[in-house]
Amino acid sequence: MWLKPEEVLLKNALKLWVQERSNQYFVLQRRRGYGEEGGGGLAGLLVGTLDAVLDSTSKVAPFRILHQTPDSQVYWSIACGSSREEITEHWEWLEHNVMKTLSVFDSNDDITSFVQGKIRGLIAEEGKGSFVKEDDPEKFREGLMKFEKCFGLPEQEKLITYYSCSYWKGRVPCQGWLYLSTNFLSFYSFLLGAEIKLIISWDEISKLEKTSNVILTESIHVCSHGEDHYFSMFLHISETFLLMEQLANYAVRRLFDKETFENDPVLHDPLQITKRGLESRAHSEQFSAFFRLPKEETLKEVHECFLWVPFSHYNTHGKMCISENYICFASQDGSLCSVIIPLREVTGVDKADPANRGVSISTKGKTAFRFTEVRDFEHLVAKLRMKCNATASPQHIINTEVTTLLQMVFKYNSKTVSTEALMTVYHPQDAENLDSKMLKEKMKEQSWNILFAERGHGVSMFRTKKTRDLVVRGIPEALRGELWLLFSGAINDMASNPGYYTELVEKSLGTCTLATDEIERDLRRSLPEHPAFQSDTGISALRRVLTAYAYRNPQIGYCQAMNILTSVLLLYAKEEEAFWLLVAVCERMLPDYFNRRIIGALVDQAVFEELIRVHLPQLTDHMTDMTFFSSVSLSWFLTLFISVLPIESAVNVVDCFFYDGIKAILQLGLAVLEYNMDKLLTCKDDAEAVTVLNRFFDSVTNKDSPLPPAVQQGSNLSDTKSDHPKVDITDLIRESNERYGDIRYEDVESLRCRNRLYVIQTLEATTKQNVLRVVSQEVRFSPSDLEELYELFKKEHFLSCYWSVNSPVLQHHDASLPYLDQYRIDCQQFRVLCHLLSPWSHCANRDSLALWTFRLMDESSDCLINFKQFAYTMYNGSFTDKLKLLFKLHIPPAFTEVKSQSPSKGDDLSKEELIHFSQLSVSSVGDGLENDPLKSSPEKGKGKVDIQAYLKQWQDELLRKEENIKDLPRMNQSQFIQFSKTLYNLFHGDPEEELLYRAIAVVTSLLLKMEEVGRRLQSPMSPVQSAVPVSEVAAEVPRERQEESISEQTEGSRAQSLGGNHEWSFAFEQILASLLNEPAFVRFFEKPHDIKAKIESAKNLQLKARTRV
Questions:
Q1: Which of the residues 62, 317, 484, 827 has an alpha carbon 20 to 30 A from that of 85?
Q2: Can you give the pLDDT at residue 906?
């Protein structure tokens, strides 16, 4: 065990200890007399006697490790052990994780401080493991208090766990604590007076991986905003990395991937996330993906055991995994044996061979599976019997019978649903006239029948290397649909939802959405050369399957390439089976492939690029741009090579895909590139390389295909391409398995996780570039400042999503919207940013200004604004632009009377008041003035998107002329009073405050006189009383009363005017002309503002501002 470092003087201890190992910084010692023949002589006997007579609390462990530094007589005890194995494990950990690091320090004191800090961290880490199971452990509370004190995050931020580790600042490691919370990765260190504090939000991470180099044997690399961070010396690095991966993935799915998030109720409440829950979720996801089970299955238990393999007469070692509805087994001894036993198929669970702790499970297929060496097997048998009884309860049987009856009724009512695979209708096999290809096909069928006889037939069959070998050779036409259903796991979905498809077809018939329009457009483009899709039978079946799926999963709806894949499925599977196969592909086997951004396909292309770098380095060196592989291989992944290979060859690829998943597509892609390596290395550009690959795909054949020549695409090659050597698909697939079969499923999933972060951040970078390109034409910020503003805007959007269970802003984030509308903020968030960035944020009525600005920008009246509207409000224009904005803030639709319900708060508004005032509808007032109606964005992400409405809105924006100041409405009395008050508030604290106050009085007096003159000219016969000159009053009233003086004078004028039934008002030109006569005004509004300093300050204060809110 690790010990709290304490000084040891070796001068007096050498006689009691024997040195066994040593290096420059550490010494491993054994207690004299321990483990020696004869007790180690007289000295050993004396030491042994001394240890024996001491009480148990004073006994000394027989092994220990000391830390030493050169030229020092003082050593530090850092570890002890009761056995050689234990102390050796500690010694090896020090050698692998600490030794190489110590060489970077310049002084011995720094080395000793680092080692002591590291050991203390390890002790705390081990101690933390002992209280994990407690409900509210004291040590975790201590860690939580340190977390809250160090980082000052809002109290809603939930700490998941924390680890002792080292953070590398340059070439120097800093020992400290890594805190993992729901939204942030945080690190804190305080050593030798130097404090290091790091906060990275999960949504900013573009790379997360385990790495190793010369100095760092094993570390975790985090990349955020182009900056690299390295953390090392973890006690359990794999556990830490898994948790970090889960939290980063959670943040990405919650904040960027709205479609996946909405389908996953577990992600909805960030306050419910726990360390144990995340680990359990990760294991359950791996379990269901590996065995192709429904996503809802949760891994409950794992038992190491042996499974008796009857056809090979031996026990294979592996793990039994148990979920709510399945018992699964996967070998771990290289035999590639796996079994899936649905509880619905189990007929009995019994103890077998108690001496070997055996469990026997019988199924309806009269197969008995015998597991041995199962820990606590009696308890497991009892539990499995309870599960099976619950599954086969009378109520369940009755419900199944009722569902079956309903299914029959639906089938009766929906006679259009096809019950046969299209291949059996259009290409029936002639059993009497068998040619050589059909004989080979029958031999394949016979091989599978032998396999079924040995290893079982159906969902509970043994799956071994022999099974994969037969799949690689190509599944027989007659068995293809059945085995696709079996290997994909779609058979489990179908068995769990009887009658579901027929009911879905009934509901979806006649629906009209954007998806159904796209489906109708693509129906005739799906395998048009095949007779099955030249008739109404095939087209109707394809329409029903695609429409039913779009109805089932509106988040995906319909995506191009789904029609091609579904066409092939319908050839070999019944209509309902084809539907469930499509569900398995879209929702489990190729996750996120068929959404609007095809994120899943982009992730797998990034994985493919990494595998090319590893396995085909010479090709990587030749290609200057790796994006070529992404562009050329996109169709390979989206259509499983169906779009590039002849149909008779492509179905063999689909065979392998349903058995091995995406691993089969990656292996085949590598084999295709390697086969064409020499030609690709001579290509001068991408177009030439594409031509090489297209000719290769045209030359791929399937010499054993029993399909008629009229259907086979490979047999229709023109003579001009006959010089290209033919390649048999079976040989190509076999070669891909032999050369790249060592690519493990676990490695692919790990690469997928790592590259998902990169792909998402790349898409986000594209969104940012497009937004900035549009906005930069409207505002006068430098590109770097505008980019920083965008990051602050987007961060504020995310901050509202971090701690809200149901955030309205998160609900409005939709990647299918135009770039500008993907991120929007509400009035509360806008207020926070205004307080941080606006040059007018010191104003006493700043909340009112923020509210009016928001209302002015909210053209669609949905209480949300985008970045373009936000950037426009940052007042970076000329004197006239700033004054015009201020003027518009005090007239409808922006202006509304604002008064806080809490007098103690003054002009500050609560969040509820702010939201309330932002939602008030105020119509503009004017005599014949042109006012644009409030534009509503066409169906912002809801239901069917009106493309025409988007185009019209875009055209209107292009045709909109620059706003003329003469078009602005006039400002009435109450609005002008508030305008004057705002000016007073703005000038408070300015060096020229006195001059500005006097200027306001002069301008106001001038405007009132101008209005009086205008009214006299319009109606010379009406009696008019002149107003008291405001300038005289302003000169005499103290500064703090000047604002009230202006208000009183204007109110008096208003009363006089009302008496004569006249409303006075001001045009913008009048106010502008009056203010231009006052140099103090001009200097104030033309004063440059350091936006860079404001942005830097906002970046530092944004989180704290959120904490205060």
A1: 317
A2: 55
DSSP conformation class of 969: P
Cα 397 to Cα 24: distance, rounded to the nearest angstrom: 73
Token representation of residue 236: 């359990």
Cα–Cα distance, 91 to 111 (Å, whole number): 17
Cα-based angle 719, 723, 724 (whole degrees, multiple of 5): 110
513: amino acid identity, one letter: T
Q: What is the pLDDT of residues 897-929, one digit of tens each?
A: 876 655 555 567 777 776 777 777 644 444 333
Which 8-state DSSP code applies to residue 187? E
Which residues, 6 or more positions from 1075, have their beta carbon under 8 angstroms from its beta carbon? Answer: 883, 1003, 1081, 1082
Structure tokens at 926: 């004017």
Q: Which residue type does 378 have?
A: E
Spatial separation of the C-alpha atoms in residues 899 and 847, rounded to whole Å: 11
Residues in CB range of 218: below 8 A, 6 or more apart? 96, 97, 210, 211, 212, 232, 237
How many C-beta atoms surround the C-beta of residue 195 within 10 A? 11
DSSP 839: T
3-state secondary structure of 210: strand
Select the more confidently predicted residue: 944 or 862: 862
HSE-up (13 A, CA, CB side) for residue 440: 11
Q: Which of 87-96, 140-149, 357-366, 462-471 has the lowest mean pLDDT?
A: 140-149
Give the model's confidence band at 49: pLDDT under 50 very low, under 70 low, under 90 confident, else very high.
very low
By CB neighbour count within 10 A (0-12 exposed, 13-18 middle, 19+ buried), where does 756 fall? buried
| 713 touches 646 (CB < 8 A) | yes
Give the SS3 label for residue 973: helix
Cα–Cα nearest to 812, from 940, 919, 947: 940
> For the chain, how big is the Rg over CA atoms in Å?
38
Strands 700-701 and 17-22, bridge-based pairing: unpaired
Query: Are 658 and 489 within 8 A, CB to CB?
Result: no
Question: Is the CB of residue 255 less than 8 Å from the CB of residue 798?
Answer: yes
Average pLDDT over residues 370-375: 92
* Per-residue pLDDT tens over the stretch 656-674: 999 999 999 999 999 999 9
Work out the pLDDT band at 36, boundaries 50, 70, 90. Answer: low
Torsion of CA 665, 671, 673, 675, to 10 degrees: -150
Q: Are 386 and 319 in contact (CB under 8 A)?
A: no
User: 962-969: which pairs have CB atoms within 8 A and are 24 or more residues apart?
Assistant: 965/880, 965/884, 965/1068, 965/1069, 965/1072, 966/1069, 967/929, 967/930, 968/884, 968/887, 968/888, 968/891, 968/1067, 968/1068, 969/891, 969/892, 969/924, 969/925, 969/926, 969/929, 969/931
At 771, the pLDDT band (50, 70, 90 cuts) reads very high
Q: Which residues contact 140 (CB under 8 A, 6 or more apart)?
A: 128, 131
- Residue ranges of alpha helices (H) inside 414-476 are 422-426, 436-455, 465-473
Q: Give the per-residue pLDDT at 1107.
A: 58
Q: Has residue 1027 got a pLDDT over 90? A: no
Nearest to 121 by CA among 110, 132, 113: 113
Stronger pLDDT, 813 or 374, i.e. the higher one: 374
238-264 residue pLDDT tens: 889 999 998 998 888 777 765 555 556
Peptide bond into 893 cis (omega under 30): yes
Q: How far apart are CA 972 and CA 889, in angstroms?
A: 13
User: Mean pLDDT, to the nearest integer, of 1006-1017?
Assistant: 80
Task: Name the one residue in this structure whose structure tokens are 């373009």.
Answer: 868
**pTM of full prediction above 0.85:** no
Task: In whole angstroms, give the CA distance from residue 948 to residue 480.
Answer: 45
Q: Which letter, b or e, does each residue of 346-370 get, where b requires 16 or more Cβ atoms within 10 Å of its Cβ?
A: beebeebeeeebbbbbebeeebebb
User: Which among 26, 163, 169, 208 has a CA at the least distance from the CA of 100?
Assistant: 26
